[in-house]
Automatic annotation (TrEMBL):
GO biological process, one term: transmembrane transport
Lineage: Bacteria, Bacillati, Bacillota, Clostridia, Lachnospirales
Record's protein name: Sugar ABC transporter permease
Entry-linked InterPro entries: MetI-like, MetI-like_sf
Membrane-spanning parts: 12-31, 78-97, 109-129, 141-162, 183-205, 263-282
Length: 297
């Protein structure tokens, strides 16, 4: 017994040490980026910043928010996130429920086809040509439709419907003359609200972060999401447009480079801040989502 107790204490100690190291590795980049966005760019450039802000300044944020397309990107991203989430739920939930029904013929074949797309796809060029043929290029649908059904979300929903909604309740409703549509909307869906909350959160975060579809299928900057605007600022050196009208000292080459470095960190904060704010309140739903998909239905 004593030997067993000693092993447990040793295991707990090792687990705590490893967890602490992982916490530091995860938190330090976040804290550093946040501190660098408020720090003097000269200090950041020299590598003198380690953790807390030094030489507090908001010049980087002022330059970012004076750039009007940033607000256009915020509006577009909010639109894509909200409507993309709604479209994802409308397509995913009925499909998952149908695949969870044991009396549906061919459901295993259909599920295999969904799973097949997780490993193989048509490729970028054929997909682009298909989007062009459908007339979806340079429209909001080019961003919304490709992410309408996520296979991982489909698996979570199918597993939940199969294991957490008693078949006896559904069978009793069918005997009473309830149609499949009414059964799904009036009985199954209200009993599955925790899972719906999980999928809503997953779909929203996916739409908020994704930019690749917009990068490939959109050429009109008025439709760009926030992430694409930020990418262009970081990678295509659009700082000149951001710095127009600043003081003469700001237009000096060295200070422009330093300000650009400060703005890079500020841009990261701007793009991730909304998700970071809501995540602590919704963290339990992420954990529920992992557990829902862990049981095979």
């Amino acid at each position: 017994m004593k030997h067993s107790g000693l092993n447990d204490k040793l295991f707990d100690m090792i687990a705590i040490i490893i967890s602490g190291l992982l916490l530091i590795i995860t938190l330090y980049p976040l804290i550093y980026v946040l501190s660098a966005s408020f720090s003097d760019p000269v200090i950041v450039t020299k590598g003198e910043l380690w953790l807390l802000p030094k030489g507090l300044t908001l010049d980087g944020y002022k330059a970012i928010f004076d750039y009007k397309p940033i607000w256009v990107g915020y509006r577009n991203t909010l639109f894509y996130s909200v409507f993309g989430t709604v479209i994802s739920l409308v397509f995913t939930l009925p499909c998952a429920y149908a695949l969870s029904r044991h009396d549906m013929k061919g459901r295993n074949i259909i599920m295999f086809l969904f799973l097949f797309t997780m490993f193989f796809n048509g490729g970028m060029i054929p997909t682009y040509l298909a989007m062009k043929q459908f007339g979806l290029l340079n429209t909001v649908w080019a961003v919304l439709i490709p992410g309408a059904v996520g296979v991982s979300n489909l698996i979570i929903a199918r597993t939940y419907f199969a294991n957490s909604v008693p078949w006896e309740i559904q069978e009793a409703a069918i005997v009473d003359g309830c149609s499949n549509t009414r059964l799904f909307l009036a009985i199954v869906l209200p009993l599955s609200m925790p899972m719906v909350a999980v999928l809503t959160l997953y779909a929203f975060v996916y739409q908020w972060n994704q930019f690749f579809n917009a990068l490939i299928y959109l050429s009109d900057s008025k439709l760009y999401p926030l992430q694409l605007y930020l990418r262009n600022i970081l990678l295509m050196d659009q700082m000149n447009a951001l710095l127009e009208g600043d003081s003469e000292a700001m237009q000096a080459l060295l200070e422009r480079i330093q300000l650009k470095e400060s703005m890079k960190y500020g841009i990261v904060v701007v793009s991730t801040l909304p998700v970071l704010i809501i995540y602590p309140f919704l963290q339990k739903y992420f954990a529920k989502g992992v557990m829902m998909g862990a049981i095979k239905g």
